[in-house]
Amino acid sequence: MTETNIEGPLYAPRKKIYPQAVHGRFRRIKWTLLAITLSIYYFTPFLRWDRGPGLPDQAVLIDIPARRFYFFFIELWPQEVYYFTGLLIMAALALFLMNALAGRLWCGYLCPQTVWTDLFYAVERFIEGDRRHRILKDQHGFTARRAGELAAKHFIWLMIAWWTGGAWVLYFADAPTLVKELVTFQAPMVAYVWIGILTFTTYTLAGFMREQVCIYMCPWPRIQAALTDEWALNVTYRVDRGEPRMSVKKAELARQHGESAGDCVDCHQCVNVCPTGVDIREGLQLGCVQCGLCIDACTHVMQQVGRPTGLIAYDTDINGQRRLEGKPPVYRPIRARTIMYSAMIVLTGAVMVYALATRGSLDVNVLHERNPLFVALSDGGVRNDYTVRLLNKRPTARAVTISVLGVPGATMQTPGVGHGAGEQIGVEIGQDQSRELRISVQVPADLVPAKSVRITFEVKDPATGETAAATDHFVPPTN
Ligand code: SF4
Ligand code: SF4
């Protein structure tokens, strides 16, 4: 039996990271995406969409009391929640596709944790200065000026976090109305509670936990590490070009003497700008969110020392190997897995679009009464009871007829509802509403089926000819 010696602590305490400001192509892409994604999140609730009288005019609205989800011209009912399943499948496939093309594109540019942390870092840098100033300020203890800076930073962070929580609740009610209610303290308590929860989570995750969320909490880095392949582009330090590292002067001398000298001048700029504190020169790591900022930093350094840019760049594992073997790089963005993911996204999207385009505005659900399953009448006839829900998805009220098919001699009764009784009954349904009916179906003694048979409830709008149907069973007494 072998003895295991554990040396040192099991958990390494966090080393505070002071990312340095950087300029360049990837930083510009990140600022642009930050502005777009945050604008979408904060301002979407204020977009209006005219759906006609009596219906909400908010373009994107999750109306929990009315049990509706509105997204511009699309209105989803609770029965259509499967569309969200389709959306989730497409989102997962899009993540897989991004991963197959260029690694953690989502993590580096679009993930909310990345976007808000980036915003919080920008505030920190604006108030406390760049990396060097922040390190010195942390080392030089507490002064009145430092206290003022910290107070200002945390105040702005809290305002951003509060606005984030506030924007979230606006998706669940008419935004302009809710804003007025919030500022006059007349909004429902649940709105204040959710704003409080999201203010706290945003402030904590983006202000304090930062890269620890990506490294320790999020499952996606582990999943994507298992999904990726050697053809995916990743932020890569080109070892063949960079090593051996040395200063500019030493490298020039070495080259003059015909000795090998790498382009890396060991300036640590790529590490200093990294928001997760990774040294990309040590290879691909779990902590690297692939934000590309080290590319910008190194590009700047290479331009300053007069060496070709691209020492750190998006590249593939295959090319890393090929360069070491002196072979030219090859890129294959179009390969089996990217074709398969794209095809599955297109297919899922097409099925959803078709289902949306062809769905009717009239629907019916039926549920058989289970206790009792049937009622034997004194004249030998049999009665079954059903709960029938009619759905009118049109913005106008409509009158429909209900018929039962499949059980000869069946007649219906709807206690206290509808017009008439018999083989067909008429019912009115309000605009964009559902209506629940209890319908008793009765079969005379001489036509009672010998065994359980399928029964169909057919709903028809005589004005438009649109029909909808739902089936269940008519159950006779058992011997
Ligand atoms: S920024 Fe470039 S040159 Fe500087 S340490 Fe990083 S890889 Fe080397
Ligand atoms: S190593 Fe480079 S790409 Fe990776 S997180 Fe750090 S700065 Fe971004």
Care to describe what's here?
43% of the residues lie in helices and 17% in strands. With 479 residues, the chain is of the alpha+beta class. The chain has 3 domains: 203 residues, no CATH class; 91 residues, no CATH class; 113 residues, Immunoglobulin-like (Sandwich). Strands 6, 7, 8, 10 and 12 form a 5-stranded antiparallel β-sheet that branches. It has a 4-stranded antiparallel β-sheet with strand order 11-9-13-14, with no helix packed on it. A hairpin with a 5-residue loop joins strand 7 and strand 8. Helix 4 packs antiparallel against helix 6 and helix 6 packs across helix 8. It is elongated. It starts with 24 loop residues before the first helix and ends in a 5-residue tail after the last strand. The model has no long low-confidence stretch (mean pLDDT 93). It binds iron/sulfur cluster (2 copies). The site of one iron/sulfur cluster has 13 residues, from helix 14. The site of one iron/sulfur cluster has 15 residues, from helix 13 and helix 14.
How is this structure best summarized?
This protein has three domains: 25-227, no CATH class; 234-324, no CATH class; 362-474, Immunoglobulin-like (Sandwich).
Structural class: alpha+beta
| Percentage of residues in helical conformation | 40-55%
Low-pLDDT parts are none
Give the N-to-C terminal Cα separation: 71 Å
Number of domains: 3
Instruction: Give a count of the beta strands, DSSP E runs of length 2 or more.
Output: 14
The count of helical stretches stands at 16
GO molecular function, one term: metal ion binding
Protein name: 4Fe-4S ferredoxin, iron-sulfur binding
Domain 4Fe-4S ferredoxin-type: 255-283
Transmembrane segments: 31-49, 81-102, 155-173, 185-206, 339-357
